[in-house]
């Protein structure tokens, strides 16, 4: 058994909550810092199914916050109140590490350990750097292979150059990098949740885009967090969050 505040302070030491974006809501989303937790669970985000299956008086560590914005109503049938109700009844606590963890851990893991890019440097919310020039379509196929996306499955792209010699990588929804940090020709932003007008902006600036999907870029959170907790002697149980989208 462990105290929630003890684990909170450890998480803050390895990924300071002060690093989160202004719009984010990382930190203790639900519960009591003074609570003693029976079990520790890690997941990309809390779902009703996960809340139903965990033990009472537990701590859940998630990537996505349970509450992003202030809520005006708390209807038990609606997300996220449906999940919070179950956790409250079970006397559970929830800590989220979102954009702060992107900065300290997840972006680097996704860029290097998953996609194989070496030597990228911090660049705002992204990791960026020059790569050996590669055909755009081959880059897309390489990424699909590394993410175990079947070759016949399409992924959303904007191709502005035949060859790519510079990449920026952002986990989650990172299209804002287009507007915050100028990218040159033959550059490609690799992220998720790219919108129509992001594509128009990129096309006008001769920047290529590859949308790997929000879930695909962040699904490694649980295994990273479980491994980090283990170094401190905390045993965590991984709960898999499923992608809410299906591709038919």
- Average of per-residue pLDDT values: 94
Q: Count of helices?
A: 9
Structural class: alpha/beta
Strand content: 15-25%
Explain the overall architecture:
With 248 residues, this protein is an alpha/beta fold. It is built from 9 helices and 13 strands. It has helices at 4-14, 48-53, 81-89, 99-114, 136-146, 177-180, 196-204, 214-218, 221-231; strands spanning 2-3, 27-30, 36-37, 40-43, 59-62, 93-96, 121-123, 126-135, 157-158, 163-173, 187-192, 208-211, 236-238. Strands 7-8-10-11-12-9 form a 6-stranded mixed β-sheet. A 5-stranded mixed β-sheet has the order 2-6-5-4-13. The radius of gyration is 19 Å and the shape is elongated.
Looking at this protein, list some descriptive labels:
248 residues, 13 strands, six-stranded mixed sheet, alpha/beta, five-stranded mixed sheet, 24% strand, elongated, single chain
């Amino acid at each position: 058994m462990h105290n929630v505040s003890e684990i909170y302070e450890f998480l803050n030491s390895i990924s300071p909550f002060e690093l989160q974006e202004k719009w984010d809501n990382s930190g203790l989303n639900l519960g009591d810092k003074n609570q003693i937790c029976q079990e520790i669970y890690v997941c990309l985000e809390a779902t009703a199914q996960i809340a139903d299956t965990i033990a009472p008086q537990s701590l859940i560590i998630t990537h996505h916050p349970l509450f992003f914005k202030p809520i005006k109503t708390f209807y038990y049938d609606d997300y996220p109140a449906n999940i919070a109700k179950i956790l409250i009844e079970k006397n559970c606590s929830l800590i989220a590490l979102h954009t702060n963890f992107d900065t300290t851990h997840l972006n680097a893991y996704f860029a290097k350990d998953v996609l194989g890019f070496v030597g990228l440097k911090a660049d705002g919310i992204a990791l960026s750097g020059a790569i050996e020039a590669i055909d755009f379509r081959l880059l897309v196929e390489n990424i699909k292979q590394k993410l175990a996306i079947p070759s016949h499955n399409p992924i959303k792209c904007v191709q502005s150059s035949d060859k790519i010699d510079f990449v920026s990588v952002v986990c989650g929804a990172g299209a804002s990098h287009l507007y915050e940090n100028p990218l040159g020709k033959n550059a490609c932003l690799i992220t998720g949740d790219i919108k129509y007008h992001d594509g128009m902006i990129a096309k006008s600036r001769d920047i290529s885009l590859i949308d790997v999907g929000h879930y695909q870029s962040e699904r490694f959170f649980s295994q990273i967090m479980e491994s980090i907790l283990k170094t401190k002697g905390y045993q965590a149980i991984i709960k898999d969050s499923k992608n809410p989208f299906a591709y038919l």
